[in-house]
């Protein structure tokens, strides 16, 4: 049992006044933003010490959870090989090793059936390209960013981040000799080879951490001589780039939250300059891919001009602003997500009725041929198809109950071939677990979907009140789709029902779902989540004393808002890297990524209405003294550049000052937004969180 006699750290109150639009707010904990200050470091370390002491009784449970995931995972395993050129590329893991190993083996002739690799058995002709464990040696944190091969397979580039800052260092190796080249490019984002393998294209960020510049580095030349290919000056727009599967065009993508623009560079012309496909127009988003249809170069463009859920058109590559042929018309409620072109067809991913779908597209007629699956809730997507032409098309498939599965469609016959399903050791049977979707009624009458997953032998949801783990996100049109989790099995097998509240602000029900949960309609995200929680109580699935809520990043803002609006509804709230001091951040354009966020949340710096609206819901400004808060655990990382550690640090200090009696914070001192690195470290981190939730739910014994 937790020792509640241990006293929490008390952050000194040093009020500073922030005034905007005639409104003043007194901030007592802004001093915690001084990351390099020894007093701030000492306070964060004191928070960690306190959290460890308060959760020390859970150490046996944490270890049990860690061992459970280890017992279910095939620690020495291999991915399904992907053919590119004359090689099969794959990754493998080894028992006891934190990171993956990138490998290849030679392909034979025109055989496109991937070789079956057996875990623990040596692969004939294996060439180890990159051992993440060797790269990570000597570092507390390691993240592999870019990994690319030249088209002829003779050169490899990779990039690494050893701080969690998401700034990567690019390195290059000659695979013919095995020698590292002298070329080293620091502080990059994306990085990939030009088709001839003689140059590297990469992005860099500005001081606000926004990818804004695209560069060309010719191998063997000084980095200082690199050519700037493009610079995006508008602070609202991010820059990204890639090469079409046809290898014909370099695509430069520029995008804010609501507007996009793409430029093409014809790689067949050494003197080609970037040319705009469609000039940017406020509120119009589009993406481009290159197709060859009846011998003509065409561009397939997915766009939302007068098409809320997007339509797909075809235009001449030589005149992209000319005649448009509609291939897939706009259909309200069917949100088109992505198009990828191949030599003889294209693939389209879309969302309908809250479920993601994948389909083949006839590029001439626009006929969609969806790939059908039996489960009512699932996620299907195309992945691992680098070649312009191949006899098989690879897909990924999963659900709450089905482990990640690699499928290939045989294009000549339409037959599905299962190449691999993630092994789950210990006799796992997907039929032992049930999944369904139920609907809650929001405060304005809108029906909000909730996905449920549970262990069947412990009873159907609603038969009797059960412990519930309710998860939510609800921002950036990001959807929480059905996905499998080995670690979740430890919760389900202990009787917990896992639920996902598909609240507005996400993209589950189409673009309107997103629009209804952003800017001056953001409160819908919070009230939807509360409605979902109350629905689970009202239908007998659980009780407030047996329900814990979780959300991370923007979902952490959701957690902070819900804690203020309905603290009585939950026994505990887990907030991961939570965006709980959102108004302070969005008011300061000097902070990382602030300006690009104005299209998502609104601009409170220049708009008094947005300021007042945000101040009415942001968690830090709305902490209450008239309620009993549930137990709260905040997880953060010192080097997070997306949601700074100071946000949960200030929030936790203010909650305690307001009288919240059981608030904990754990700060990783050498990690970024994604938390700790290394699979074993990540399992232990998640075991820490699951143990805390099980303790809140009364299941720690």
Can you walk through the features of this model?
- There is one protein chain.
- By secondary structure, the chain is of the alpha+beta class.
- It is 18% helix and 33% strand.
- It is built from twelve helices and 39 strands.
- The strands form nine sheets. It has an eight-stranded mixed beta sheet, sandwiched between helices. Strands 3, 4, 5, 6 and 7 form a five-stranded antiparallel beta sheet that branches.
- A hairpin with a 6-residue loop joins strand 9 (155-161) and strand 10.
Report the biggest beta sheet as strand number plus sense, adding barrel if it closes: 8 strands, mixed
Q: How are the strands of the largest sheet arranged?
A: 32-33-35-34-36-37-38-39
Mean pLDDT: 96
- The termini sit apart by 9 Å
Extract low-pLDDT stretches: none
Please state roughly what percent of the residues sit in beta strands, choosing from under 5%, 5-15%, 15-25%, 25-35%, 35-45% or over 45%: 25-35%
Please summarize what this structure is.
With 701 residues, the chain is α+β, with helices and mostly antiparallel strands. The model has no long low-confidence stretch (mean pLDDT 96).
Topology summary:
Blueprint: E1 16-20, E2 23-27, H1 38-54, H2 59-72, E3 77-78, E4 82-84, E5 87-93, E6 101-106, E7 127-131, H3 132-136, E8 143-149, E9 155-161, E10 168-174, E11 180-188, E12 191-193, E13 199-205, E14 211-218, E15 227-231, E16 238-243, E17 249-255, E18 260-266, E19 275-276, E20 286-293, E21 296-303, E22 311-316, E23 325-328, E24 334-341, E25 346-352, E26 355-361, E27 368-370, E28 379-382, E29 392-398, E30 405-410, E31 416-421, E32 433-441, E33 447-455, E34 468-472, H4 488-492, E35 497-501, H5 511-515, H6 523-538, E36 547-552, H7 554-565, E37 572-576, H8 582-586, H9 594-601, H10 608-615, E38 631-637, H11 646-657, E39 663-668, H12 679-696
Parallel strand pairs: 34-35, 34-36, 36-37, 37-38, 38-39
Antiparallel strand pairs: 1-2, 3-5, 4-5, 5-6, 6-7, 8-9, 9-10, 10-11, 12-13, 13-14, 14-15, 16-17, 17-18, 18-19, 20-21, 21-22, 22-23, 24-25, 25-26, 26-27, 28-29, 29-30, 30-31, 32-33, 33-35
Helix pairs in contact: 2-12, 6-7
């Amino acid at each position: 049992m937790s020792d509640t006699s241990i006293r929490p750290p008390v952050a000194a109150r040093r009020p500073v006044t922030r005034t905007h639009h005639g409104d003043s707010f007194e901030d007592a904990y802004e001093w915690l933003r001084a990351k390099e200050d020894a007093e701030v470091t000492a306070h964060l370390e004191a928070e960690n010490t306190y959290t460890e002491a308060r959760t020390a009784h859970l150490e046996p449970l944490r270890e049990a959870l860690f061992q459970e995931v280890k017992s279910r995972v095939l620690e020495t395993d291999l991915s399904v090989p992907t053919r590119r050129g004359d090689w099969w590329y794959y990754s493998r893991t080894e028992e006891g090793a934190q990171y993956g190993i990138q490998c290849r083996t030679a392909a034979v002739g025109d055989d496109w059936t991937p070789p079956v690799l057996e875990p623990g058995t040596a692969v004939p002709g294996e060439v180890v390209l990159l051992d993440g464990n060797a790269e990570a040696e000597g570092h507390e944190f390691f993240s592999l960013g870019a990994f690319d091969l030249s088209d002829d397979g003779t050169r490899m580039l990779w990039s690494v981040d050893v701080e969690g800052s998401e700034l990567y260092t690019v390195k290059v190796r000659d695979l013919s000799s095995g020698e590292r080249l002298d070329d080293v490019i620091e502080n990059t984002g994306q990085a990939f080879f030009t088709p001839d393998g003689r140059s590297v294209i990469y992005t860099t960020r500005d001081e606000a951490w926004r990818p804004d510049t695209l560069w060309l580095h010719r191998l063997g030349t000084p980095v200082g001589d690199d050519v700037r290919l493009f610079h995006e000056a508008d602070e609202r727009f991010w820059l990204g780039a890639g090469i079409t599967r046809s290898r014909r065009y370099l695509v430069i993508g520029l995008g804010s939250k609501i507007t996009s623009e793409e430029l093409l560079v014809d790689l067949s012309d050494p003197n080609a300059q970037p040319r705009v496909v469609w000039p940017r127009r406020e509120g119009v988003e589009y993406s481009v891919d290159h197709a060859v249809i009846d011998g003509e170069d065409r561009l397939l463009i997915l766009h939302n001009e007068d098409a809320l859920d997007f339509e797909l058109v075809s235009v001449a590559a030589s005149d992209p602003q000319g005649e448009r042929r509609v291939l897939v018309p706009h259909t309200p409620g069917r949100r088109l997500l992505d198009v990828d072109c191949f030599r003889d067809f294209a693939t389209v991913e879309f969302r309908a009725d809250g479920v993601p779908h994948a389909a083949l597209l006839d590029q001439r007629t626009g006929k969609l041929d969806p790939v059908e699956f039996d489960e009512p809730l699932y996620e299907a997507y195309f992945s691992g198809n680098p070649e312009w032409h191949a006899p098989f098309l690879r897909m990924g498939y999963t659900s709450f109950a089905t482990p990640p599965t690699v499928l290939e469609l045989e294009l000549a016959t339409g037959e599905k071939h299962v190449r691999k399903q993630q092994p789950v050791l210990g006799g796992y049977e997907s039929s032992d677990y049930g999944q369904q979707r139920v609907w809650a009624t929001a405060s304005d009458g809108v029906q909000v979907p909730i996905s449920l997953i549970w262990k069947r032998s412990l009873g159907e949801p609603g038969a009797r009140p059960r412990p519930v783990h309710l998860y939510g996100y609800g921002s950036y049109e990001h959807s929480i789709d059905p996905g499998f989790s080995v670690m979740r099995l430890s919760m389900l097998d202990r009787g917990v029902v896992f639920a996902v509240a598909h609240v507005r602000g996400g993209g589950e029900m189409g673009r309107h779902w997103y629009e209804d949960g952003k800017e001056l309609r953001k409160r819908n995200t919070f009230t939807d989540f509360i409605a979902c929680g109350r629905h689970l109580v009202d239908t007998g699935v659980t009780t407030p004393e047996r329900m814990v809520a979780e959300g991370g990043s923007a979902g952490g803002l959701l957690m902070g808002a819900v804690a203020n609006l309905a603290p009585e509804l939950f026994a505990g709230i887990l907030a991961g890297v939570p965006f709980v001091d959102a108004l302070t951040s969005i008011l300061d354009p000097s902070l990382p990524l602030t300006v690009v966020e104005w299209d998502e949340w609104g601009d409170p710096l220049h708009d008094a209405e947005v300021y007042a609206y945000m101040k009415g819901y942001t968690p830090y400004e709305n902490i209450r003294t008239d309620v009993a808060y549930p137990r709260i655990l905040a997880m953060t990382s010192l080097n997070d550049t997306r949601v700074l550690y100071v946000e949960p640090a200030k929030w936790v200090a203010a909650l305690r000052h307001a009288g919240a009696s059981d608030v904990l914070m754990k700060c990783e001192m050498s990690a970024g937004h994604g938390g700790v690195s290394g699979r074993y470290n990540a399992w232990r981190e998640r075991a820490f969180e699951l143990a805390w939730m099980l303790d809140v739910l009364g299941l720690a014994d």
